[in-house]
Specification:
2 domains; 6-PGluconate_DH-like_C_sf; N-(1-d-carboxylethyl)-l-norvaline Dehydrogenase, domain 2; 10-stranded mixed sheet
């Protein structure tokens, strides 16, 4: 199986590296100093599940890679449209472009550029980032992702990719028949974790220790769930309590990528997260005051960092 990782950062490079270990033909698409290091020294992954290094072909031009069976699309949400316009050299008739991005509406933007028939939705569960150019640091999380066709079909191409994922150590994959539900469920958690750590600018442990802050965390999850249901996603009744239990077990020093980007003067995924929830809430007449508050507080930072 030939796999391209478009946006070979913490998420994409980790899963791409694991698939390469299993024998897949993996190509990394990156840019800047990170690309230079990948080409010069290869990929190095420092992982709580076991470190590994490998040399993989890396480029900033999809035309160098050519047609693939699967494209793991792992760019930041604010780069979705621009990156989607560059994907076409990777596409064959049956190529699947699997979005493993934060936020909502990434799949819609992808489909508008390359055609809905090529797009699969996906959600990744892993804590990893680029520690330095060419080096991915995986600090925790389940190292798993869920993906599926947008219409819920169990396609041959999705099944073939799952077989390859099952061969790989250090990662798990699940094929979903309701990926829209999965996307909204993950967004519910991210909006709470990212929204609270970025606005409070303190780690999760201190948020949990204050009743009012912990209640706002819960309400953020609940609001996203209600908006998701209003759009037609069939979220489970226990989603809020499940995520609260999950967050209660996270390390007290946990932050979020949104907090990291804000404090390191990097572009932020605010629009794909709270911005989309606010807009979808208004479209479906669902009140989302907690998400509106987070969006209002972080907008100046997002504009400054952009």
């Amino acid at each position: 199986m030939k796999v391209a990782v478009y946006g070979a950062g913490g998420v994409g490079a980790y899963f791409g590296g694991r698939l390469a270990q299993a024998g897949a033909d993996v190509h990394l698409i990156a840019r800047g100093d990170h690309l230079d290091a990948l080409q010069r020294d290869g990929l190095r992954v420092e992982s709580v599940s076991g470190d590994f290094s490998m040399e993989l072909p890396a480029t900033d031009d999809p035309a160098d890679v050519g047609r693939c069976d699967v494209v793991l699309f792992t760019v930041k949400s604010f780069d979705t449209e621009a990156a989607a316009r560059e994907v076409r050299p990777l596409l064959g008739d049956d190529t699947a472009v699997v979005s493993l991005q934060n936020g909502l509406d990434n799949e819609t933007k992808l489909a508008a550029e390359i055609g809905r028939e090529h797009v699969m939705g996906g959600v990744a569960y892993i804590f990893s980032t680029i520690a330095e150019p060419g080096v991915v640091e995986h600090t925790g999380g389940p190292t798993s992702f869920t993906y599926g066709e947008l219409d819920g079909a169990r396609s041959d191409r999705a099944t073939r990719f799952l077989e390859w994922c099952d061969r790989a150590d250090g990662m798990d994959a699940e094929l979903s028949e309701s990926i829209q539900t999965d996307l909204w469920e993950k967004a519910a958690f991210i909006c709470a974790q990212a929204g609270m750590t970025a606005t409070v600018r303190l780690p999760l442990g201190e948020i949990r220790s204050h009743e009012e802050s912990w209640e706002m965390y819960r309400r953020l999850i609940d609001e996203v769930c209600r908006v998701g249901r209003a759009t037609g996603a069939e979220l489970r009744d226990g989603t809020v309590s499940q995520w609260m239990d999950f967050a209660d077990d996270l390390g007290a020093d946990s932050y979020s990528s949104l907090h990291y980007d804000m404090t390191h003067e990097k572009p932020m995924e605010l629009e794909a997260l709270h911005g989309t929830v606010v807009r979808r809430g208004r479209e479906n007449d669902v009140a989302v005051p907690m998400n509106e508050a987070v969006y209002a507080i972080l907008q100046p930072w997002a504009q400054r960092n952009a």
